[in-house]
Each structure stands twice: as structure tokens, then as C-alpha cells.
Design goal:
The protein is an alpha/beta fold. It has helices at about 10-30, 35-40, 45-50, 60-70, 75-80, 95-105, 120-130, 135-150, 170, 175-190, 240-255, 260-305; strands at about 105-110, 160-165, 195-200, 215-220, 225-230, 235-240. The protein has a 6-stranded mixed β-sheet, with helices on both faces. Helix 2 (about 35-40) packs across helix 3 and helix 7 (about 120-130) crosses helix 8.
């Protein structure tokens, strides 16, 4: 992939430099990529992609290579000086949107079913990517890329991010109770930032006119405005002013009809407490499930004790 997220050229060059240095020391040690991979251990393809500058290594990878190749810690020091976020790759169809996130001055979004990427926790994103990716390293890279997109929105003076979440985003279970509880807490936290507003379109309000799909209205420097939406396997962009105006009007009505930010925070808190209570009940059931076999075992031991005959008094016979 030739283009990358935010600061593309710098990210690509630094990742490539790390890969070239690794290749230099590997070849000097007379090791093939496969031989090095066996000693780390990892897949040969992982070594190949790091050397090509298309895979972000962990610091443990750099330290292991230093030790195996006798570099004197060169790779670990180089790893620590590289800003790896720009070097994280996105799927081909999403690169364009990732670049827009890196430049946007304002984003207005509507989301259904899942929490939008700019608001996800690492645990939520990991569970989401884990549904369709089998390689743990691929999942970790996608999560790192997603977290990197969020950074400029979570600092003072960050771009405006106004989002309306369908209530299904809160109810759709991703990653389990603990992940969902942390995700709700994160929504409450970021919703208090001056540049972010989170509103909920509640499920018990069928009269609310909701878009047919998740979408984002993106404003870029210089006045460019784009409508972005996603289908199953690709992203769709339009900079047609008429289309943008149409969706902006629909979105303005949606925000007006949705719960206010304080009301939405109260609903998110209720959902979070529901996940917490459900988790506590599950834990209590687990303790009970452990206690029941112990009780049965004690009763079994009681029933299985050897029994000794006891002398019982015979009924007194009456004299004739």
C-alpha cells in the first residue's frame, strides 16, 4: 500500500528505514527471514513485512531481534524514536476516509448498530476486528490505527465531532459485559469534551426520521464538504453540494429530535449500570454454581458414610 494515514510520507520513510536496518543486520548474521522468524518466534511473513516497511512491529520484536542479531540495542533505540502511528496501514477502501479524519475541521455523524471508530475503546475495537480477522497481529495493527485516528479529536482545540448514536449501538453486545461497560464509560468521558457531543436516538421513538445507513458529513480545510457512508465492503464519497445540503438538513432534524446531550448521558449511564448489574448477577450465579456441587458432595459424603447397626428397644409385650 503506497498511501498511509496522516503524515503519510514521513510514516512510510521511517517504517522503511527500520525495515532496512533490520534487513542489514539479519543478512550480516547470515540468517534468512524464515530462520530469524523461528528464533523470535513469529511467522516469516511478519519479518518480511517489517523489512518492507508495511508492518508495525512491537517493541518486544525489536528487542528480540537486537538480542538474536547482536546489534547492541540499535533496533530498540530506533523503534523508540519512530512515530509508528502514521505508518499504520488501513484497508485500501478506507485510506481516503482516514486521511479525511486527519484533516477534518468538523465531522457530523450518525451511527447505527456499532460505536463509530472515533469513539471506540481499544477493547471494543479489538473485539470488533476479532470477529473477522484471525491473525492477532493484524487485529492489533487495525486497533492501533483506529486509536491513532482518535488522537486529534481528544485534545484541547480538537475538531468538532457531533455524533448521533442509534440506541442499538449501546445495546448491540460487542466483546462482552466488561467491554460494553468500559465503552459506555468512555462515551460519557469524551462527551464532556468541549468539541464533542454525543446524542442518542432512542429506540422507543419510532417517529424519529433516521437515515437508512450510518453516514458522516465531513468538513475539510478550505471549505470542502463530503458525505461519507459505508456499504458491506467499501466506502462511498460524494462532494456534490446538493447531496451534502440534503443530508445536512436531515441530520439537523435528527439532532433536534434526538435526546439532548445531558439526556443522552443519563441513558448511557443507565445502560452502563445495566451491564454492571448483569455482570454482578452472572458472578453471583457462578458462585452459586460452584457452591451447589460442594453441597451435593457434602450430602453425598454424608450418605456414603458407613452405617453401623444400632440397638433399638423392642416394644414391651403386654402380660396376658
Amino acid at each position: 500500500m503506497s498511501r498511509r494515514n496522516g503524515g503519510a510520507e514521513t510514516g512510510a520513510s521511517t517504517a522503511a528505514v527500520f525495515g532496512e536496518v533490520l534487513r542489514h543486520f539479519r543478512e550480516a548474521a547470515l540468517l534468512t527471514q524464515e530462520a530469524l522468524a523461528r528464533q523470535i518466534p513469529c511467522d516469516r511473513s511478519h519479518v518480511a513485512r517489517v523489512e518492507a516497511g508495511t508492518r508495525v512491529p512491537q517493541d518486544s520484536f525489536a528487542k528480540a531481534c537486537d538480542e538474536l542479531l547482536g546489534t547492541g540495542g540499535v533496533l530498540a533505540r530506533l523503534w523508540g524514536r519512530i512515530d509508528w502511528y502514521p505508518a499504520v496501514e488501513h484497508p485500501d477502501w478506507f485510506e481516503r476516509r482516514a486521511r479525511m479524519d486527519a484533516e477534518a475541521v468538523a465531522i457530523r455523524a450518525y451511527q447505527t448498530q456499532v460505536i463509530p471508530g472515533l469513539l471506540q475503546t481499544p477493547g471494543y475495537a479489538t473485539a470488533l476486528f476479532g470477529r473477522r480477522l484471525t491473525d492477532a497481529q493484524d487485529v492489533a495493527e487495525r486497533v492501533r490505527a483506529r486509536m491513532s485516528r482518535q488522537q486529534r479529536f481528544l485534545v484541547d482545540g480538537g475538531p468538532f465531532y457531533l455524533v448521533v448514536l442509534d440506541e442499538s449501538c449501546l445495546r448491540h453486545m460487542v466483546g462482552g459485559l466488561e467491554v460494553m461497560r468500559e465503552q459506555c464509560e468512555h462515551l460519557l468521558a469524551v462527551g464532556r469534551l468541549p468539541n464533542i457531543r454525543v446524542q442518542i436516538a432512542p429506540s422507543n421513538r419510532p417517529e424519529i426520521d433516521r437515515p437508512d445507513t450510518s453516514l458522516s458529513l465531513i468538513e475539510l480545510p478550505g471549505g470542502e464538504r463530503w458525505v461519507y457512508s459505508e456499504s458491506l465492503d467499501r466506502g462511498h464519497f460524494s462532494d456534490d453540494p446538493a447531496i451534502f445540503t440534503q443530508h445536512m438538513r436531515t441530520y439537523d432534524v435528527l439532532r433536534a429530535d434526538a435526546l439532548s446531550a445531558p439526556q443522552s448521558a443519563a441513558l448511557i449511564s443507565d445502560v452502563r449500570e445495566g451491564y454492571e448489574a448483569h455482570d454482578q448477577r452472572a458472578a453471583a450465579r457462578g458462585d452459586l454454581d460452584q457452591e451447589q456441587p460442594q453441597r451435593r458432595q457434602r450430602r453425598g459424603l454424608h450418605r456414603n458414610r458407613p452405617r453401623f447397626p444400632r440397638r433399638r428397644p423392642h416394644p414391651r409385650q403386654q402380660d396376658p
